[in-house]
Design a protein that fits this description.
By secondary structure, the protein is of the alpha/beta class. The chain has helices spanning about 20-40, 50-65, 80-85, 90-95, 110, 125-140, 180-185, 190-210, 230-240, 255-265, and strands at about 10, 45, 65-70, 95-100, 115-120, 150-155, 210-215, 220, 255. It is globular, with a radius of gyration of 18 Å. The chain starts with 8 loop residues before the first strand and ends with a helix. Bound molecules: NADP nicotinamide-adenine-dinucleotide phosphate.
């Protein structure tokens, strides 16, 4: 949440071949974050607060002293949110408010007065709600005069699904995009939704001068704070139960959640 970094970055924290670039950025930012955390503990919003990634992110933000507004579809659903209330600092600095990606204006209240918005919520494998939901959050951000940066959790599936015969020696970095045609051909609807949502976010951010960063994790593994299974955990369980998968579905490199929450905060 700081403005000294060039705006508009895609962060691809999974490939070994990207490690140098990522390490440089993390080191570069880490001291700035520490400085910022110790001097200015602002208010930030995390959408999809009950989720696997968001729960860890909220834990880290609370530990760093931020005031966190988390959005969930039903703040009264104890099964989904009780783990959040057990986090250190939650009683003092966490608020859970309602936010539904499918409802226009649903995030107006949540993002208001927040300096940073971490948009992690994602409807499962659905194209139009993924695009509209992301734009919905960004439209709410536009109404907030205090906004400094939006961090969108996208996916490595927006980068790595390419016809290798057409890109034989290309390494992947944040400039690469997955092939929409190949995703359609292989019926990779989740990837298609993430590509479309991220592209829509970049277009909207550029048109409206929003400082946007996208984080592109692959499979995030590690202990879950929530008792619920994340989408990825369900997919992996499905594999163990003998479900079939496409070659691209599980082709990415596993990425532990420990550094991921730092990537979200550092950028
Ligand atoms: N986990 C991974 O390995 C991985 C890898 C790459 C990218 N990602 C991306 O990282 C983000 C978080 O993933 P995750 O694994 O933490 O997912 P998750 O545990 O399934 O959480 C997603 C959250 O999205 C919220 N949500 C779903 N539909 C919604 C709607 N219509 N309105 C508002 N909220 C809605 C749900 O919150 P409620 O039901 O409580 O409202 C849910 O807690 C996603 O954008 C995902 O695409 C994850």
């Amino acid at each position: 949440m700081h403005s000294s970094w060039s705006s508009s970055s895609r962060i691809f924290p999974s490939g070994a071949y990207m490690r140098r670039l990522i390490c440089f950025k993390v080191e570069h930012h880490h001291c700035q974050i520490e400085k910022m955390v110790s001097s200015d503990k602002g208010k930030v919003c995390v959408t999809g607060a009950s989720g696997f990634v968001a729960s860890w992110l909220i834990k880290r933000l609370l530990e760093s002293g931020y005031h966190v507004i988390g959005t969930v579809r039903d703040p009264g659903d104890r099964r989904k949110v009780s783990h959040l209330w057990k986090l250190p600092g939650a009683k003092e600095r966490l608020e859970l408010v309602r936010g539904d990606l499918l409802e226009e204006g649903s995030f107006d209240h949540a993002v208001m007065a927040c300096e940073g918005v971490f948009h992690t919520a994602s409807p499962e494998e659905t194209l139009v709600p993924a695009i509209n939901g992301t734009l919905n959050v960004l439209r709410s951000c536009m109404k907030n005069p205090f906004l400094r940066r939006v961090v969108l959790t996208s996916s490595s599936s927006t980068v790595r699904i390419r016809d290798e015969s057409q890109h034989p020696h290309n390494s992947l970095d944040e400039a690469a995009w997955s092939s929409v045609q190949l995703c359609e051909k292989l019926q990779l609807w989740y990837a298609l939704a993430k590509i479309s949502a991220e592209k829509a976010a970049w277009e909207f951010a550029k048109e409206n001068n929003i400082d946007l960063v996208t984080v592109l994790p692959s499979f995030v593994i590690g202990p879950s704070l929530s008792p619920e299974l994340s989408v990825t955990a369900s997919d992996i369980l499905g594999l163990l139960q003998g479900n079939r998968c496409t070659p691209f579905q599980f082709s990415s490199i596993f990425f532990k959640k420990q550094p991921l929450k730092k990537f979200h905060i550092c950028y």
